[in-house]
Amino acid sequence: MWKKVIITVAVLVVLQHILTVLYIMGFHKRIYQHYPGPCRIIPEIDSGSENIALLSNGLALISSGCNPVHMGFVLDDEILNHQGNIFLFDFNHPEKNAIKLKFTGKDFDYARFSAHGIDVYEDKKTGAVSVFVVNHRRDHEVIEVFQFDHKSLTLHHKKSVIDPIMRSVNDVAAVSSDAFYFTNDGYSTSFLTRNLETFLMLAKGNVVYYDGKKMRKVADKGFGDNGIAVSPDNEFIYVAQPTGMIINVYERNRDATLRLVQVIDLGTAPDNIFVEPGTGDLWLGCNPVLHRLMDNFKNKTLTAPSQVLHVKWEDPTRVTHGYTLSEVFLDTGDFLSTSTIAAYHQSTKGLLIGTVVTKLAYCQVNAF
Question: Is there a catalytic annotation at residue 116?
Fold first, then answer.
């Protein structure tokens, strides 16, 4: 009798897990397309616009050419051969297209550049702009640090940050010209073990803090910790978990450790997080149907839906309290496939929507 009970319970547990995975993959979802206003594709970019960082003058830096092979995906040959680049888009002149930035630095190997997460830090005293970019080099996970020269449209390489704790780096959030947080979205990097890790939903993700000299974990046991961002006052850290369909809100302690204070349930898979400078509101690039994202990785001609959500805090001075969640943009994938980030420029009401491995879109936000 007990043997039958144990077998029945085991079967039910396995069945529940399989149904949970199917739910997360979004097999049950239908897409009802809507835009916040007129939208257009920015023509220069066709190898992804995975993440976007906004400067105070309205210039946006866009990471392109991500090759996520380390995450266990089966990838199209075109994606495997993506060349990493950083593009510039000016919200003040949205009719213009993106410009590819130049690189300088004897220790920077452009041929091995696979750009993923990106963030910027502006020194209010000197005006210097530090740029931090996740680079999936073949030999190491790296965060590259650059100085941005607006006049020459050049990124001057300062250093490459490498450490054994950097297992599968996804995104970076700068808190000074030297210090930053970053996420590891998993532990395993081989195809078999990473897929087992993902299917079994093992909590192997984490958040790491780098003070300019040393690294240490400040949040552990995350389910695929992905996009990361910091609040305008540097008091809170936001972390996206796609498989959990949530945003974790952490309060920063004086020693830079993190304390979880709120969980925002989305019902969809968030990728990257953009924090609106003036309000602290969150703009989220999401993938509502994850199984189609996997298909897009295998074959770039197969599209996947794109989605943008907006989290508006009821009281911007107390972000751990109430909020309103709205859907800003939803597309079947025919116009824009596999959205990852949505960067909003308040004064022009412009919205840039990035993707993992395909295009970049600009929308005028009239209403949502």
Answer: yes
The mean predicted confidence, pLDDT, of the chain is 92
What does the alpha-carbon distance between residue 231 and residue 319 come to, in Å, rounded to a whole number? 9
End-to-end CA distance of the chain: 58
Tell me the two tokens of residue 123: 């020194």
For residue 158, what are the contacts with CB-CB under 8 A and spacing of at least 6? 105, 130, 145, 146, 147
Cα distances (angstroms) measured from residue 346 to each of 48, 237, 279, 343, 352? 24, 21, 9, 10, 12
The pLDDT-based confidence of 319 (bands split at 50, 70, 90) is low
Task: Give the C-alpha distances (Å, rounded to integers) separating 151 from 58, 119, 148, 233, 270.
Answer: 15, 20, 9, 29, 35
- In degrees rounded to 5, what are phi and psi of residue 217? -70, 135
pLDDT digits (tens, 9 = 90+) for 280-304: 999 999 999 988 888 888 888 899 9
Catalytic residue (choose from 17, 34, 93, 116): 116
Chain center to CA of 50: 7
Long-range contacts of 125-131 (CB under 8 A, 24+ apart): 128/177, 129/55, 130/158, 130/174, 130/177, 131/53, 131/61, 131/86, 131/155
Give residue 160's Cα distance to chain centre: 20
Q: How does DSSP classify residue 68?
A: -
In the block, tokens 């023509």 appear at: 43
3-class DSSP state of 202: coil
Quick one: which H or E segment has residue 295? helix 290-298
Q: What is the pLDDT of residues 79-94, one digit of tens each?
A: 888 899 999 999 999 9
Q: Identify residue 140 by its one-letter amino acid code.
A: H
pLDDT recorded at residue 40: 97
For the cut 90, the answer to whether the pLDDT of residue 346 exceeds it is: yes
Buried b / exposed e along 178-195 (16+ C-beta atoms within 10 A): eebbbbbbbebeeeeebe
Q: Is the pLDDT of residue 264 over 70?
A: yes
